[in-house]
Amino acid sequence: MSYISEKELEELENRIRSKDFKLNSLLEITKAINSNAPVSDILNIYNYVLTEQLGIRKFILFNHQGEWKVLDKMGIKGKVKDIDVEQDFLRFTDITVIESSYKQSLDKFDVVIPVHHKDKPLAFLVMGGVKDQLMSNDRRSFANLNFIQTLTNIIVVAIENKRLAKQSILQEAVKKELEIASEMQRLLFPDHLPSNDKIDISAKYLSHSQVSGDYYDYIQINKDEFIICIADVSGKGIAAAMLMANFQATVRTLYTYKRFSLEDLVHELNTKFFDSAKGEKFVTFFIAEYNSKNRKLKYVNAGHNWPILIKGKTARFLNKGCIGLGMLKEIPFLESETVEIEQNTTLILYTDGIVELENNENEQFQTDRLTKIVQNFYPLSMEDLNEIIFSKLDDWRGKRKYVDDTAILSCRIF
């Protein structure tokens, strides 16, 4: 029969206590994580284990969240400014004793503990005040370092998962907002464009993102008169789309119910858009009013890409107007023009996403190519013509993507 010495018994009891402590600490942390406790609560447990149970009085925990930040610290006053994680720690893949450093700030610490997840560095824990324990070559000291690494790994991965989950929720919310904005915008475009013995109108657009800053419209005034217009707001995304939605509503309200002249309408639109956008954005805008009885088309072009009026082999630009709306609080000059429309004339309204589309040689599509397509495919309906135009655009861009919102409104006047 063998007996355990008092020293061996004490050692065994210490090992059991150590294992119990580590197990309890892991259970406490796991319980907090599983109950979806706030990050602050998880860090409080982590802090308690390091300081009160392991006696670590000085440490900094760096965590990567898009950039390296201090997630937790103890025994360090003020902000940590002179430690560059990427320069100072990325080379460490295992627990490493800091014997000496070229940086005075790192001399305060004795060991660095890296935390990796799938070969990606997530965190670095640097600790001070443990040099004597490390120098003693006590097995328990090194076992504690491995335990601290495991504990830190659990903490950091849990926090990273919470961050990714929160990011996923935010992305889902943004996606939902975009879907709503896209649906709202779709409802702004006219759901019916006329095709009869007087006129044939068709439109097509592609948005660079889920929502567009381009806009076109058709407003029937009476059996002999109608309005067509097109616009492009500076910028992209939801903000541009919402500004354009407000702009479209203003156009319809002012013209349909107040029957402003085109000149007065443009002045009023400029004032309202400037106030809405706070002078930070502007919109280019073309509007034309056509009377089928006298075959007169009156228009104002507010800084928009010049629409093309095409009859046979002749083409002319509609470029009379003013600066873009919202650029200045008051428009310094404004000019309208009235043109007589011959039979079988085609009017092409478009945004810069068409003519500025580049090919692999960085050449822009430009208005000459657009004009030739319209002339070469004259017999087609406007809907078929628009499909041909976008097919040619696809051929032109090759593997390049559309980098801007793209809209076209084609009108054939018989």
Attribute tags:
single chain; 414 residues; alpha+beta; Beta-Lactamase; Phosphatase 2c, domain 1; 2 domains; six-stranded mixed sheet; five-stranded antiparallel sheet; 10 helices; 16 strands; 42% helix; 24% strand
Rounded to an integer in angstroms, the radius of gyration calculated over CA atoms is 35 Å
Report the sheet-strand fraction: 15-25%
Number of helices: 10
Number of strands: 16
Order of helices and strands: HHEEHEEEHHEEEHHEEEEEEEHHHE
Assign the CATH architecture of the largest domain: 4-Layer Sandwich
What is the domain total for the residues? 2
Annotated CATH topology of the largest domain: Phosphatase 2c, domain 1
Name of the CATH homologous superfamily of the largest domain: PPM-type phosphatase domain
What share of the residues lie within helices? 40-55%
Classification by helices and strands: alpha+beta
* Average pLDDT figure: 84
Termini Cα gap: 116 Å
CATH top level of the largest domain is Alpha Beta
Which geometry do the CA atoms define? elongated
Low-confidence stretches: none
- Sketch the major β-sheet: 6 strands, mixed
Could you describe the 3D structure shown?
Helices cover 42% and strands 24% of the residues. It is α+β, with helices and mostly antiparallel strands and 414 residues long. The protein folds into 2 domains: 6-167, Beta-Lactamase (2-Layer Sandwich); 189-413, PPM-type phosphatase domain (Phosphatase 2c, domain 1, 4-Layer Sandwich), CATH 3.60.40. Strands 7, 8, 9, 10, 13 and 14 form a 6-stranded mixed beta sheet that branches. A 5-stranded antiparallel beta sheet has the order 2-1-5-4-3. A 5-stranded antiparallel beta sheet has the order 6-16-15-11-12. β11 and β12 (314-317) form a beta hairpin. α5 (139-188) packs parallel to α6. It is elongated and about 100 Å long.
